[in-house]
């Protein structure tokens, strides 16, 4: 019993010593952890301070680099500016030198005896052997021009012509502002000189003079005057299309300098010969094309009379005797009548989308027309007509019929292929399934005529070369006879 109590005391003392060691180790571990926390905090603070220092250094370096780049750019601008100034100065000196040579070329050629040094072994030239000294600018013959003058004219065209002539002179013979002001003192006469004496103190160059001169001598309604001239200007009989087109274009540009090419073409076609305009509409887009194609058509017109005279000589009309009402014998008076046949329609085989159709060439029809039944026969599945830009068509009987729509088809005539826009009308409004109008002729006016078969159809009406009255029922005049086609091209 006493032994057990002693063992318990020993065990309790051993446990106390173990707990003390544990606490000591825990305290040691706590101190170590605290030391680690302190070092970690110091490390983080050091890293943050180092990052702030790097950022500050980078900001300083960026500012210095920006200043360096700005200084280099400024220096580059100064160098480029100095270079351009030196170039302008060199060009100015060269221009003055050229102008001085140009003015020297206006004076007479001077002759002088070249000086010879006293110690030279060459003999002195006599008076007969003097050689001329020609300025370098005189090697090329100068253009002789006089500055234009302006007097007491009251026409607006004279005012604009004077300004244009002055600009042409200054283009060939540039003058300085001082020289120009002095020249204007001598070329202006009458009321123009009186105006110049009062206005020259406010003018220092050509731009100011041009603006002030036009404001002083052109009427306030000058644009309206040009517009009236443009409205009343039409092609005169016997005037060729080339001269009229160029004059009308110049008038258009004088009225509105920014006028487009399409607008000028439209105005020229509206003012030229209607017969000529009908063959050019929709085929030309520029004035140059209009002049080129129109000149060819005018040439064809001039050759038409010669052509028909040759046809009548080679194929004279048949003459038959007139029968006597009282018997089979002919009258003694020898009455002769010309046998006139029924005018035949010019039927042409045309292939539309692979289908053959007999088309009638109608010189009195402005647009090509197609019956609705023919359209249904050649149209594709689900294909619909586009809207027609022509609201109504005036027929030969005076009635107005509305188009059902418009279609653009690929047609084949002999060896020629092309796209043709046709307007579809109801079957009751057309006497033919397909009428080819002037728009078809304008696409390829020579395609059908160059074919021998088609040309023989044109010569079929050789008994009377004049057009007959077209039958009723076709658009704007009816179907064309063979002679009408040639008359349309005339």
UniProtKB/TrEMBL annotation:
<protein>
    <recommendedName>
        <fullName>Retrotransposon gag domain-containing protein</fullName>
    </recommendedName>
</protein>
<feature type="domain" description="Retrotransposon gag">
    <location>
        <begin position="187"/>
        <end position="271"/>
    </location>
</feature>
<dbReference type="Pfam" id="PF03732">
    <property type="entry name" value="Retrotrans_gag"/>
</dbReference>
<feature type="region of interest" description="Disordered">
    <location>
        <begin position="309"/>
        <end position="337"/>
    </location>
</feature>
<dbReference type="InterPro" id="IPR005162">
    <property type="entry name" value="Retrotrans_gag_dom"/>
</dbReference>
<feature type="region of interest" description="Disordered">
    <location>
        <begin position="117"/>
        <end position="141"/>
    </location>
</feature>
<dbReference type="InterPro" id="IPR021109">
    <property type="entry name" value="Peptidase_aspartic_dom_sf"/>
</dbReference>
């Amino acid at each position: 019993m006493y032994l057990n109590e002693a063992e318990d005391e020993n065990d309790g003392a051993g446990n106390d010593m173990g707990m003390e060691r544990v606490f000591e180790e825990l305290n040691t571990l706590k101190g170590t952890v605290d030391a680690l926390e302190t070092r970690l905090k110091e490390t983080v603070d050091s890293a943050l301070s180092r990052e702030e220092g790097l950022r500050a250094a980078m900001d300083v370096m960026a500012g210095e680099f920006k200043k360096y780049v700005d200084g280099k750019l400024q220096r580059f601008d100064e160098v480029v500016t100095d270079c351009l100034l030196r170039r302008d100065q060199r060009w100015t000196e060269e221009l003055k030198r050229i102008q001085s040579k140009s003015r020297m070329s206006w004076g007479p050629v001077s002759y002088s005896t070249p000086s010879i040094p006293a110690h030279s072994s060459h003999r002195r030239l006599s008076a007969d052997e003097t050689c001329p000294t020609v300025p370098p600018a005189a090697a090329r013959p100068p253009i002789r021009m006089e500055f234009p003058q302006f007097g007491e004219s009251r026409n607006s065209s004279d005012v604009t012509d004077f300004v244009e002539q002055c600009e042409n002179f200054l283009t060939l013979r540039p003058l300085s502002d001082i020289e120009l002001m002095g020249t204007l003192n001598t070329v202006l006469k009458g009321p123009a000189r009186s105006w110049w004496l009062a206005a020259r103190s406010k003018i220092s160059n050509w731009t100011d003079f041009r603006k002030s001169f036009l404001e002083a001598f052109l009427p306030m309604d000058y644009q309206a005057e040009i517009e009236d001239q443009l409205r009343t200007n039409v092609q005169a009989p016997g005037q060729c299309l080339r001269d009229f087109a160029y004059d009308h274009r110049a008038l258009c540009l004088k009225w509105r300098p920014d006028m487009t090419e399409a607008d000028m073409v439209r105005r020229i076609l509206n003012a030229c010969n209607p017969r000529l305009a009908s063959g050019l509409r929709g085929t030309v887009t520029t004035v140059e094309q209009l002049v080129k194609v129109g000149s060819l058509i005018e040439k064809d017109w001039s050759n038409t009379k010669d052509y028909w005279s040759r046809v009548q000589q080679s194929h004279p009309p048949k003459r038959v005797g007139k029968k006597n009402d009282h018997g089979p014998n002919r009258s003694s008076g020898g009455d002769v009548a010309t046998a006139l046949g029924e005018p035949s329609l010019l039927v042409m085989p045309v292939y539309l989308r692979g289908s053959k159709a007999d088309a009638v060439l109608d010189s009195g029809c402005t647009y090509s027309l197609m019956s609705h039944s023919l359209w249904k026969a050649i149209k594709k599945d689900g294909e619909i007509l586009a809207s027609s830009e022509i609201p109504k068509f005036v027929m030969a009987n005076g009635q107005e019929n509305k188009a059902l729509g418009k279609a653009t088809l690929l047609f084949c005539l002999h060896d020629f292929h092309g796209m043709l826009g046709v307007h579809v009308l109801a079957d009751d409004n057309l006497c033919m399934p397909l009428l080819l109008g002037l728009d078809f002729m304008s696409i390829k006016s020579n395609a059908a005529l160059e074919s021998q078969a088609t040309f023989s159809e044109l010569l079929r009406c050789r008994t009377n070369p004049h057009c007959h009255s077209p039958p009723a029922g076709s658009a704007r005049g009816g179907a064309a006879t063979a002679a009408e086609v040639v008359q349309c091209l005339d």
